[in-house]
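Example 3.2
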Amino acid sequence: MLVIVVTLFAVCWLPLHIFTLVMDFNPQLNSEGQPEPSSAGVAIYTAVHWLAMSNSFVNPIIYGFLNDSFRVSVLNN
């Protein structure tokens, strides 16, 4: 279960960190000189940010399916 939790944490958060690093090291991709950010950049950021925040949603599901004692304690209360 621990391996699954850590793997899903990495899968959820890695795209956001990669996006941030790419934007930091390639300022020409960032539309700082433009009055409005590009719609593709905003869409990519929104998608990877949503994926990173979805990690909070995934953890209880993992615990519920993989941990018998957690499932029993929830059902008994």
